[in-house]
């Protein structure tokens, strides 16, 4: 008996027919996107950072959390919507890109407001943090609290947040580039509909 859970309970994918593949193409699967994974980690990290270092009465608390939330959510929504609108997918991914850059700037502003160092490329600790590639917030916390890293813990946390936001932003730009190349090669939903009905490659101009 089908129950609408899209295969998460062993029922298989709901949209698994050859026709669905021809009409909707490859879509969703955002959890496998590196951009989404890093953006979601950034959101979890930012929630924890703000709860510890930014008072809820400070407007920057909600601003940082919402910017990080917008990043991963718009990547996911764009991936889902790509089934029927490549344009919407690209628009939402671009919104995610802007939000992630906003989050990066907020971390840097936090460092400035608190009189903490903003690590620059070439600093040994910056290079170490950039190459950390954490998978979970817990891994981030272990690194931040590790003895010998140097600087106040808040400084380490804010700089790591800025680095995660930078990496998520870069990966999202790469995702946008892939969207552009895919659209140029395969077209969008209207062209898929035409090919599904006629078996042709592209509709006539």
By helix and strand content, what is the structural category?
Answer: mainly alpha
Rounded to the nearest angstrom, the radius of gyration is 21 Å
Number of strands: 0
Shape: globular
Number of helical segments? 8
Distance between the termini: 45 Å
Largest sheet: none
Q: Encode the helix/strand succession as letters.
A: HHHHHHHH
Helical amount: 55-70%
Q: Which residue ranges are poorly predicted, with pLDDT under 50 across at least 5 consecutive positions?
A: 1-12, 19-25
Q: Assembly state here?
A: single chain
The whole-number mean of residue pLDDT values reads 82
Strand proportion: under 5%
Question: How does this model look, in words?
Answer:
This protein is mainly α and 205 residues long. It contains eight helices and no strands. The chain has helices at 18-24, 34-53, 59-81, 86-113, 124-130, 137-144, 153-186, 189-198. The chain is globular and about 50 Å long.
Structure described in brief:
By secondary structure, the chain is mainly alpha-helical.
Write out key terms for the chains shown.
disordered N terminus, 205 residues, globular, mainly alpha
Give me the secondary-structure topology.
Blueprint: H1 18-24, H2 34-53, H3 59-81, H4 86-113, H5 124-130, H6 137-144, H7 153-186, H8 189-198
Helix pairs in contact: 1-8, 2-3, 2-7, 3-4, 4-7
